[in-house]
Amino acid sequence: MNRHSRRRFYFFWLAGLMVLFFNVAWSQQNQIDSLKQVLHAVQDEAQKAEVMMALSREYVGLDYEKAFEFGKKAVASAEKTDSLKLQFICYYTLGRVCAVGAMHLDTGVIYTEKALTTAHTIQDTQQILLAHMLAAAIYDYTDQSKKAVDHYETAVPLARAFNDPQYSSSIYNNLGLMYHYSEDTLNARKYYGEAIAIFKETGDTLSWARVMANLSSLETDTDKAIDMNLKALSLLDRIAHNPQLKEICADKIGNLYLQGKGDATTALTWFQKALALALEAKVEPSVASAHFGIGKALLLQNRVDSAIWHLKFAHNYYSKEGYQADNLQRVSKDYSEALARAGRFAEAYPLLLESFQIKDSIYTTELASAISEFNAKYEKEQNEAKLVEEKLKTSKEKNRKNGILIGSLILLTLAGFVFQYLFNRQRRRKKEADLALEKERFERNKLEELDTLKTRFFANISHELRTPLTLVMAPLEKALSNKPIHPKLEEDLKLAHSNSAKLLTLVNEILDLSKLESGKLDLDMQSTPLKSFLERVVYSFQSLSEFREIKLGFTYEGSENLAIETDRDKLEKILNNLLSNAIKFTDAGGDVHLKAKTETETLEIKVSDTGAGIPDEELPKIFNRFYQTGNHGGTGIGLALSKELARLFNGQLQVESKEEKGSVFTLTIPLIVSDSKSATILAEPEDVSQSPSPVFQTQLHAESRPRILIVEDQPEMQKFLRESLSDDYECEVAREGGEALQLLQTRHFDLTSSDVMMPGMDGFSLREKVNQISSLRQMPFILLTARALDEDKLHGLRLGVDDYITKPFSVPELKARISNLLKNKFEREKGWQESSGSTSNLEEPADRELLREAEKKVLQNLDRSDYKIADLASEIGFGERQLRRVIRNLSGLSPVEFILEIRLQKARQLLEKRKFTTVSEVQFEVGIESASYFSKKFTERFGKNPSDYMIK
C-alpha cells in the first residue's frame, strides 16, 4: 500500500475529530480578518493565546507556515498563564499543525509530548486520548512506526472507556493501516474487522467502503479480492456520489483482472471506468494510474498504437519531480516495450535505459539502506561492548579487536560487492550505448535515404499531377458556372474545388523542394526597401488576424530608408509561412509579432506568438520534410521549405518554444546593403515580361468563327479542350509538335494552344520552329502545360509565346484569354492596315522600346488611381498622339485600356501569388478605387472573379 495514501486516509479521520472537538469552543471565530482585529484589541495573555490558536487552525490548509507561526505565539502566551487546559489545547494545536502540514516534525514531536504530559496531569480522558492519537500520527510521519503503534494500542482502551464509536473506529482503521503497511496481515485483518463492525453499527457506509477497499489488498485469492471491491462499490452507490473512492476500487479491480487472471478485455473495461471517475474527481495521480492500466491492457491485447498513447500520458506524469521512482520504472519498461513492438526502436531504447537506471537506483538505495542498517547495528553492538568492558576488563581488548575486525571484513565485503556491481553496470551501459549509437547511425542514414526518395518521388509525379488536376478542377468550375444549381450540390462542388486547389499548392511546394535539392533554385537578388517590404508582408495578414481576433504587431529597428539586395519572392515565402503558422496555432485574444533588426552584417527577423507552443520532444523534428506533429497535423513541407530557403540565403532558421507559452522563429540572413536609390517593392519589369501582352476582352466580330489548333498528346485532355472551346471556335487537334507544324504550314489558324511535354517535338521546339516562319510569327501562341516552374515559364515567354497558362486551369479563364488574344490580333492588324495598308508590316524596334518604357512607367505609378495617358506621355518625353498610335498599333488597345490592362495583370499576379489576404487590398494596391468596377473588369478580362483566388 502507498504510504502517502495511507497518511492522507487516516489524517482525514484525525482532521474530522479535531473539528468535532473544537467546534463548540471556536466556531464563533472562523474568519481570519475578524480574528486579527480581535487580536489587536485584547491585552490578556489567555485571550491572546485563544485568538492566535484560532488563527493557527484557520490557516491550516491555506498557509501552513502562518499556521505554525501563530501556533508558536499561542503556546508562548499560554505558558504565561496558569491554565493547564489552555496550555494543552495550544500544545495539541501546534503539534497537529506540524503533523497535518508535514513540516517542522521535530518541533511537532516536542509539543505533542508536552500535550501528552499535560493531559495526564489534568487527568482528562478525552485529552489523553487525543494526545495519544496525535502522537501516533506524528511518530509515523517521522518513520518511528513502533512508537506509533504503541500509542495507537494505548489509545484503544481509552476510546472504549470514552464510549465514542468515532474515536474507536478511527483508531482501529489507522492500526489496520499501520500493520498493513508493515505487512503484518494478521493484525491488519483484525483491526480492519473491528473498524468495519463499528461502521456497520453506526451506519457510516462511506468509511465502511474505504476499509473494505483496503482489506481487499490483503486478500490473496483474486476472486475474493474482486468481490470485496465490488461490495465497496455497491456500498458507495447507496450514498452521495464519491468518484475518487470509486476510482480506487475500479483501478484495483482492473489490476486484479489483468495481473491475477490475465483477462485484458475485462481489465480494460474497469480501467476505462477508473479513468472516467478520476477525470470527474480531478485527481491527477488517479488519472495517470488509469492511463497506465489502460496502456498495459491494450499492450496485452497487442493494440500497440493505442497503448503507446496511454503509456506516454502516464510516463509524462510520473516523470514529474518528486514522484515515486518505482511507478516511473514500471511505466518506462512497458512504454519501451510498446514502442519497440511498433518498430520505433530509436524512441524505445532511451526508455529502456531509463527503466534500468531507475531500477539500479532503487537497488543502490536499498543497498545503502542495508549498509546503514548494518552500521547502526554495529554501533549498537559497540556500545554494548563498552558496557561489557566495564564488567569484563580482561576481555575488553580482545572483544574490541574482534568487533573491529569483523566489522571491517563485512564492510570490505560489502564494498567489494558494490564495486563489482558498479563496474559490471558501467561495462554493460557502455556496451549498450555503443550498440545504441550504431543503431541510431544506421536509422539516421536510413531515414535520410528515405527522405531523399520521398522528395524525388513526389517531384517526379508533381508534373504528372497537374493534368489530372486540370481534368478535376476545370469540370468542377464548369459545373459551378451552370445556374441554377442545387445548393447542396453547389456546396459539395465548391468543397471539391477548394481541396483540388490545396493539392495544387502542395504540388508547387514539393517542386520548390525538389529544385532546392537539385541545386537548380537560385537567388534573384533585387534592390528592395526593407521596412516597406516587411510592412507589406506583415499587414497582408491583417484581415486574417482580425478575423481570428489575434493582435498582429510589427517592430522595425534599423534605418528608415535602408534598401537591401534580396530575393523578394523567396524571402516572402519564408515570412508568409512563419506568419500563417503563428496565426494558425494562436487562439483568439493572443499575439503574433514580427520584429526585424539590422546589425552590421546581418538581418534578424523574429516571428513570435503566444500560441500553444511545441512539445520539447517535437522541436528537433519540425524542420524535417514530411514530419507532422502529434497535435497540429499538416503536410510537413512548409517549414522544411522555409529552412532550405534560409540556407539558400546563407542564413539559418531557428525556433524556441515552450508549451502553453508560445514559439519564436528566428530568421538570420546576411545583410547586403543596396547601392540603388530607386528600390521599389512593386513588380519588376521581369514580371511584366512574364505576363501576357496587354489585351482587353470584347466580342469578336468576324464573318466566320476563328480557327484554333490544339496541340496535346493526352487523349482525355484533347477531348476536354475541344469540347470546351468548340462552341465559340473551329478546333483542330494535333498530337505533337511535328504534326502541328505541318498543319500550320498547310492550313490557316488564328491561334495555337500547345502543351510542353509531348513525344516527338515538344511545345518549346514547336514555338522555335514557328518563330522561323514569318507568316506564322505574329499568330497568338499559348503554352498550356503542367510545367509550373518559373524557369520553364520564363523560357516560354522568351521564345515569344503570348500567354503561359499552367495546369490546372479554369475554362472560363482560358476562354477569356483566348478571346482577348484574338481581339488583340484583329485590332493590331486593323491598326497596321490603317497606317500602312498592309497586315504584314512588323513593328519598328523604336516603337517596341517605347511600349516597354510605357509599361515600366505605368507599373511605377500603379498605386495612383488618377494616373492618365497625359501623365504617361509627359514622363517618357513623347507626344500624347504619337504614344496613342504606338500603343494602338502594337497592342490593339486604346491608352485607357492599356493602363487598365497593366493594372489587371498586376492584380492577377498578386492574387495568384497570394500576396494579400483580401481582394480589397489587391484592388487598392493596383490603384482601382471602385470594388464593383474592379470585380467587373477583372472577370471580363480573365473569365474568373478575383474573389475565387481567395478560397484556394
Describe the 3D structure.
With 952 residues, the chain is of the alpha/beta class. Helix content is 67%, strand content 7%. The protein contains 36 helices and 12 strands. A 5-stranded mixed sheet has the order 2-4-5-7-6. Strands 9-8-10-11-12 form a 5-stranded parallel sheet, sandwiched between helices. Strands 1-3 form a two-stranded antiparallel ribbon. The chain is elongated, with a radius of gyration of 43 Å. The N terminus is likely disordered.
- List the total number of helices: 36
Q: Quick one: overall form? A: elongated
Portion in beta strands: 5-15%
Secondary structural class: alpha/beta
Highlighted features:
single chain, 952 residues, alpha/beta, five-stranded mixed β-sheet, five-stranded parallel β-sheet, 12 strands, 67% helix, disordered N terminus
Write the layout of secondary structure elements.
Layout: H1 3-26, H2 32-41, H3 45-59, H4 64-78, H5 84-100, H6 105-122, H7 125-141, H8 145-162, H9 165-181, H10 185-202, H11 205-216, H12 222-236, H13 243-261, H14 264-281, H15 284-300, H16 304-318, H17 325-341, H18 345-391, H19 396-481, H20 487-518, E1 526-529, H21 530-539, H22 542-547, E2 551-557, E3 563-566, H23 568-584, E4 591-598, E5 602-609, H24 638-648, E6 652-658, E7 662-670, H25 685-690, E8 707-711, H26 715-725, E9 730-734, H27 737-746, E10 751-754, H28 763-771, E11 781-785, H29 790-798, E12 803-806, H30 811-836, H31 845-860, H32 869-876, H33 880-891, H34 895-912, H35 919-925, H36 931-942
Parallel strand pairs: 2-4, 8-9, 8-10, 10-11, 11-12
Antiparallel strand pairs: 1-3, 4-5, 5-7, 6-7
Helix pairs in contact: 1-7, 1-9, 2-3, 3-4, 3-5, 4-5, 5-6, 5-7, 6-7, 7-8, 8-9, 9-10, 10-11, 11-12, 12-13, 13-14, 13-15, 14-15, 15-16, 15-17, 16-17, 17-18, 18-19, 19-20, 20-24, 23-24, 27-28, 30-33, 30-36, 31-32, 31-33
